[in-house]
From TrEMBL:
Binding-site residues for Mn(2+) 1, renumbered to this chain: H99, D122, D227, D229
Pathway(s) it belongs to: Nitrogen metabolism; urea cycle; L-ornithine and urea from L-arginine: step 1/1
Sites where the protein binds Mn(2+) 2: H124, D126
GO CC entries: cytoplasm
Cofactor: Mn(2+)
Protein name: Arginase
Enzyme Commission no: 3.5.3.1
PANTHER family the UniProt entry points to: ARGINASE
Chemical reaction(s) catalysed: L-arginine + H2O = urea + L-ornithine
Example of a GO biological process term: arginine metabolic process
UniProt GO MF annotations: arginase activity; manganese ion binding
SUPFAM superfamilies xref list: Arginase/deacetylase
Keywords: Arginine metabolism, Hydrolase, Manganese, Metal-binding
């Protein structure tokens, strides 16, 4: 596999400094050589430009979407790089940054395929809108916006259509869901599995059933979006919104490896590493360990 490493040094979506250092931290930890170990060619495309705006302008663009304008700009740039990466037959590995960048990634991926699936590994559902969000943080909105739900500045990103059909979205590991999101999950019949439900079904059974459903829906590629807070909070001090009752490290690796072994995953986000909150380099080292394990299984 020819991998394009794409960094997105942004924290505007979570309104907490730290995630912007994620891409360079992983480079410092030799992410490129770790990926190359598994016989991939790796091209580091560098970091997407993120416009600098002052904290004073947080609410200047919208009253319940903080830093909206620079988020839209950075994500539009990201979408185009991701689209070109796939058109050139590469595998884009997008390193965050906060999870607002899922919108740019998915917009780029969806331009390259007819009908994509999205598997979102996260303690959160990230389907809030400006109307339901309790925080005004855009990193809680990208998956909803990708399905065409929310404010038009987000839903029209890169091109003016929904990027993924709700029936092709699978949220795994969710255990901290806001009330507006619960309503939306019911209304749109979105597939959500908590860690407890995944353990009951079994990791392998779940992956098989997701793949069967996506194939029945005629999906031609799957985008995998991995939020570090998917993992239980006891293992990931270096993430902005940690949640307990998550998977341990081995379960996480097993799930990710089973997912990529389907050969349907054609792009991946890795987000919400906050180096400023980390205990030493514990979470950064774990990030490397997980990516090492995942890319060992990608052909
Ligand atoms: N990508 C994340 N870590 N998202 C956390 C979202 C938290 C909360 N649901 C909100 O919308 O504010
Ligand atoms: Mn998230
Ligand atoms: Mn999350």
């Amino acid at each position: 596999m020819d991998i394009n490493l794409i960094g997105v040094p942004i924290f505007y979506g979570c309104d907490k400094e730290g995630p912007q250092f994620g891409p360079d931290k992983l480079r410092e930890k030799n992410i490129v050589s770790v990926l190359k170990k598994h016989n991939h060619k790796v091209y580091d495309l560098g970091n997407i430009h993120v416009p600098k705006v002052s904290v004073k302008d947080k609410f200047s663009y919208h009253s319940n979407m903080k830093y909206l304008k620079p988020i839209v700009t950075a994500n539009t740039n990201l979408a185009h790089v991701v689209n070109m990466s796939i058109k050139n037959n590469n595998f884009p590995l997008i390193i965050g940054g906060d999870h607002s960048i899922g919108l740019g990634s998915i917009s780029g991926v969806s331009s390259s395929y007819k009908n994509i699936g999205v598997i979102w590994l996260d303690a959160h559902a990230d389907i809030n809108t400006h109307e339901t969000s309790p925080s005004g943080n855009v990193h809680g909105m990208p998956l909803g916006a990708s399905m065409g739900i929310g404010h038009e500045d987000l839903t029209n990103l890169y091109y003016g259509e929904a990027k993924v059909r709700p029936e092709n979205v699978f949220i795994l590991g969710a255990r901290d869901i806001d009330s507006g999101e619960i309503d939306l999950i019911k209304e749109k019949n979105i597939n959500v599995y908590s860690p407890k439900e995944i353990r009951e079904i079994g990791i392998e059974n779940l992956v098989n059933s997701i793949l069967d459903k996506l194939k029945a829906n005629d999906v031609d590629a799957i985008h995998l979006s991995f939020d570090m807070d998917f993992i239980d909070s006891s293992y990931v001090p270096g993430t902005g919104t940690p949640v307990s009752n998550g998977f341990n490290v081995d379960e996480t690796k097993l799930l990710l490896r089973k997912l990529v072994q389907t050969d349907m995953i054609k792009s991946m986000d890795f987000v919400e590493l906050n180096t400023l909150l980390d205990e030493g380099d514990r979470t950064s080292d774990l990030a490397i360990e997980i990516l090492d394990s995942v890319f060992e299984c990608i052909k």
